[in-house]
Amino acid sequence: MLKCFVFSMLVLAGAAAGAAPSGLTEQERGWLRAGAAVLEYARQIKLPVDIIVQPQPAPGAVPLAMGFDGGRCKLVLSMRENPQTELVLAALPRADHALMIEAMTAHEIGHCWRYAHGEWHALPAGFVETGEEFAGNPELLRDAKGLRDTRREEGFADLVALAWIQLRHPNRYVQVYDWLAGVRREGSLSGGSHDTLAWLNLARDGAAFTPAATPFDQVGALWGCGLTDDK
């Protein structure tokens, strides 16, 4: 079983202030500082988030990811001896890294919100699947459905990230949008699990988001529109 460091949301106060929680590297502290505003918001709205830091080498892993266990969300940092941690931001000036990490953190919290509200892989009210899919191999059919469900969740989370940026950094919305859309175009196969362009194409302008109490509510209409275009 892999060992890990588990921190409560209270770790953010120390991380944001520059104090090093025991066991964290400077890089891990930096990512937590960059995402602190998002995680503090998650704490305020009582999302069940635990922060997990993998101390073992994690080459090739997604540096920041959300998992679920026992009714709680697990924000997992896998950064040690992992080139992906630098590659995801390599095309950007160092001064822009914190903003993009904040957007990535908002993306992951979007996943947590869906899970915590019992909506994971569920369509919004009023939506139904149309048509039927067929495959000679039941496993292929199951895999195709899983791919589609994941893609839809990634679309929702990308919209949450952009809604957060529009709320907190509206003057930098275009910059974050261009970076995120570029990542999706370059790193995702058409129709793959992270091909979220059906949703990103609807949010080129931050004004596309519906005024609402939370970023999660703001993205509902756009997410629904993207579902109709998702194949």
The structural class is alpha+beta
Work out the radius of gyration: 18 Å
Principal-axis shape = globular
As a percent range, the share of strand residues is 5-15%
Task: Order the strands across the largest sheet as they lie in space.
Answer: 1-2-4-3
Count of individual beta strands = 4
Tally of individual helices? 10
* Number of discrete domains: 2
Unreliable residue runs: 16-20
Q: Characterize the largest beta sheet: strand count, sense, and whether it forms a barrel.
A: 4 strands, mixed
Query: Cα distance, first to last residue?
Result: 38 Å
**Overall average residue pLDDT:** 86
Listing every helix as H and every strand as E from the N terminus to the C terminus, the arrangement reads EHHHEEEHHHHHHH
Proportion of helical residues: 40-55%
Give an overview in words.
This protein is an alpha+beta fold and 231 residues long. The chain has 2 domains: 5-87, no CATH class; 136-229, no CATH class. The protein has helices at residues 11-17, 26-34, 36-44, 84-87, 97-116, 138-168, 173-187, 197-200, 215-218, 220-229, and strands spanning 5-7, 49-53, 64-69, 72-77. It has a 4-stranded mixed β-sheet with strand order 1-2-4-3, with helices on one face. A hairpin with a 2-residue loop joins strand 3 (64-69) and strand 4. Helix 1 crosses helix 2 and helix 3 packs parallel to helix 5 (97-116). The termini are far apart.
